[in-house]
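Input record, target 12 of the design panel.
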């Protein structure tokens, strides 16, 4: 069997799989989104402009309709986000007639609640401070996020409805059971929930759904030419924030981003994939998770990520 035949077989299998199981995942997500609207007084949907939040937003559009999403979209901006992503975020929110609230890590730095160890430190981990400040300011009692269990081990431990105490902390050993999709949403004053409607999706599911629903994404997700340097097994983009180190050779390669986030910790992968269907085929053969392959700040232990989540991280 030649390469062309292999691709045709994979595409046929993908098309066969892309309906029944995606219908079930979509139905579950819509159910959870509606459950949040019914159970909480002041929920918000965390919206970065990335592929996972765009999939959630598509499900919210189906659940409620354009101009009728019953909660605002909230974005915590590090100030170091890719402009292609923030521009697309603004466009999509306006297209849906949804309220968009942006809170900035730079504002937290100005208040003195975030202090960097050095000017070049990634602001990614400090988003939790700004997020908790936004929760207190706007009195949110539920935040809907796009995390998935297949991304990383600490995230795999978390419930769909994840309780946070009055300090915004997660207690992995004191989680509430979720039998038969019965969610315990009781909270005391000052507490809140993080809700993850696409917990049970995989990266492959996300891309199959994007392909099926023809969901528009920021251009960074598809193949483009970019200057990069190799560093610790990653392709680091050359930007004003991520300059080459001594001895590193700048190369121009055809790359795409599997995930998008803070410029200082997000790396592309080499890829010619120019469409969602192409990426589905690539994802079928992927051996490393998207975060493991593309995030400089995730080159840490499971225990470290779990601690960050306990402290209020996404």
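The sequence produced for target 12 reads:
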């Amino acid at each position: 069997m030649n390469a062309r035949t292999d691709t045709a077989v994979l595409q046929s299998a993908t098309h066969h799989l892309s309906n029944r199981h995606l219908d079930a995942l979509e139905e579950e997500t819509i159910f959870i989104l509606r459950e949040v609207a019914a159970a909480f007084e002041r929920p918000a949907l965390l919206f970065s402009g990335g592929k996972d939040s765009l999939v959630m937003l598509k499900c919210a559009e189906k659940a409620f309709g354009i101009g009728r999403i019953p909660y605002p979209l909230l974005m915590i901006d590090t100030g170091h986000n890719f402009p292609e992503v923030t521009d697309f975020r603004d466009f999509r929110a306006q297209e849906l007639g949804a309220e968009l609230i942006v809170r900035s890590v730079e504002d937290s730095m100005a208040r003195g609640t975030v202090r960097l160890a050095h000017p070049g430190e990634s602001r990614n981990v400090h988003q939790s401070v700004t997020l908790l400040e936004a929760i207190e300011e706007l009195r949110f009692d539920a935040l809907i996020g796009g995390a998935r269990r297949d991304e990383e081990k600490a995230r795999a431990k978390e419930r769909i409805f994840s309780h946070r105490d009055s300090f915004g902390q997660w207690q992995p050993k004191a989680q509430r059971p979720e039998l038969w999709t019965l969610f315990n949403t009781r909270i005391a004053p000052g507490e809140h929930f993080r809700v993850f409607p696409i917990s049970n999706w995989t990266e492959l599911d996300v891309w199959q759904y994007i392909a099926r629903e023809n969901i528009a994404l920021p251009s960074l997700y598809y193949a483009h030419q970019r200057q990069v340097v190799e560093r610790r097994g990653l392709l680091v983009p050359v930007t004003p924030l991520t300059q080459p180190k001594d001895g590193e050779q700048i190369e121009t390669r055809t790359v795409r981003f599997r995930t998008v986030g803070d410029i200082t910790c997000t790396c592309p992968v080499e890829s010619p994939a120019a469409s969602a269907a192409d990426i589905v085929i690539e994802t079928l053969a992927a051996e490393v998770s998207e975060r493991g392959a593309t995030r400089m700040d995730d080159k840490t232990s499971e225990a470290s990520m779990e601690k960050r989540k306990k402290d209020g991280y996404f």
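The first strand starts at residue 43 and ends at 46.
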